[in-house]
Amino acid sequence: MTRRQGIIAVAQGILLGLAVLAAALTSTAPDWKPTDLVLLLFVLAVGSDMLTVEVRSVRVSGAFLAIVLAMALLGPAPAAAIGGASALIDAVVSRRQWEGALNNVLTYCTFPLLGGLLVDALFGAHRADGQDALVFAAIVLGTFIVTNVVNFAMVAIFQRVRHGISIRNNVRTIFLTVIPSEFATGLLTAGVAFSYGRLGVGAVGLAAVVIFIFQYLVRAGVQAFERGEELSTRTRELASLQVGLLSTVMQTLSMRDEMTARHSAAVARYAREVAQALGVSEREQDLIHTAALLHDIGKFIFPDSILFAARKLTDDEWRTVKLHPEQGAKLVRRIEGYGPVADIIYAHHERMDGNGYYGVARDQIPLGSRIIAIADTYDVMTARDSYRRPVSNEAAIMELRRVSGSQLDGDLVETFVEIIESGRVAFRHADEADFERELAFDKRVADYAKPRAAVA
Q1: Angstrom distance (rounded) from CA 381 to CA 379
Q2: Peptide bond preceding 34: is omega within 30 degrees of 0, i.e. cis?
Q3: Which residues are bridge partners to 58 per DSSP?
Q4: How crowded is residue 157: how many other Cβ atoms within 10 Å of its Cβ?
């Protein structure tokens, strides 16, 4: 061992000792309950390390998700213990060099401790107790992002000090490569934390699915970076998988409000039928169908007082409601290649006369948005689980025609009416299988993931 190595090892040992001491001082008995949750998160953390992706001597593991959940649902001491133990087991199994192993254990003790303390400071000790669940989910997402940066910084600093690898180069080649999948995974981790207050330990089972998808996302992103000649193909793979993650967000929204999720699935069914009747390409049909499924995903920002309101909304509440197309579009636009989907979502409450949410009019409104507006209006009027008393198909069609030209595209209304009157499409809101089938992204993700020739 050189003198430099010795100094680094001593510094790491001191920092690790301080982290362990801090965890011990902050530990309380309630932090370690329920025991089955502690064990489940530990198993998820250790198991996910078996699917680790290595990028230029830096290993990216899905254990991070389980550890963030430990920060959020347990506390700083259990999170640090789970993180440190999983890093130690991984070091033994993978036979890492002692320097890297020591730094990994230090890192996986430190950032969980800091993250747990951050959650304590922002939310207090009453984690996921069913109160202020949206605030809690937002804190979990913020904690995910902050601790992700801390984790990367500690690894990058060690790489710079020990091996002379540029921090800037690590940011460019590693951190920026995995940002899209990290953000999507952080959003889903917040969704799991949100659901825990209502569903208990069972909700954490979603984390296993999230970790698997996360690992596959990162692997796809790394391959895309390292194989420049396949970049466009891998980007499509990554985007399709990320849309799969967004479908899980839809499932999380469904746990909170089945009516909104079922409505989105119904609108998607109708919208695809209209697009098909218009003779647009299969790709355009998929685009419109995806946008329709996600058109109300921005409602995640609504507090329960708005989402479940059985009264007339106040002006301030209406201003919040009018934000959901923009917020949904912002979320979807983060997915590489899905700008057109975001554009459709943004404009789905626009009117032909320009008196919609954001003042877009006529041909400036994307075709998909005009189709979704009609399907949306029709389903709200006819669905039995809508927030208003349902009307007959005939009455709904009369209303569509009444607002045709001013609110809705007249030509598209007639196409939609023809489809409804033909009886070839319907959506049964009470049929769980119908709902699940409409939300399923599996086939589309599988199609995108097939190897294909690069397109010039």
Answers
A1: 5
A2: yes
A3: 55
A4: 14
- Please write the tens of the pLDDT for every residue from 422-454: 887 766 554 555 556 665 555 554 454 444 443
Stretch (H or E) spanning 58: strand 58-60
Which amino acid makes up residue 391?
A: V
C-alpha 232/C-alpha 75 separation (Å) is 42
Torsion (CA) 371, 375, 377, 380 in degrees, nearest 10 = -160
Distance set, CA 166 to CA 26, 151, 174 (Å): 35, 16, 12
Tell me which long-range contacts 12-18 makes (C-beta under 8 A, separation of at least 24): 12/102, 12/103, 12/106, 13/102, 15/106, 15/110, 16/102, 16/105, 16/106, 16/109
Coil, strand or helix: which one is 92? Answer: helix
Q: Quote the pLDDT of residue 229.
A: 44
Please write the tens of the pLDDT for every residue from 378-397: 998 988 655 567 889 999 99
Rg (CA), the chain: 25
Alpha helices, DSSP H only, in 164-230? 167-170, 176-199, 205-226
- The answer to whether residues 83 and 109 touch, using CB atoms and an 8 Å cutoff, is yes
pLDDT in tens, 335-360: 767 789 999 999 999 999 999 999 99
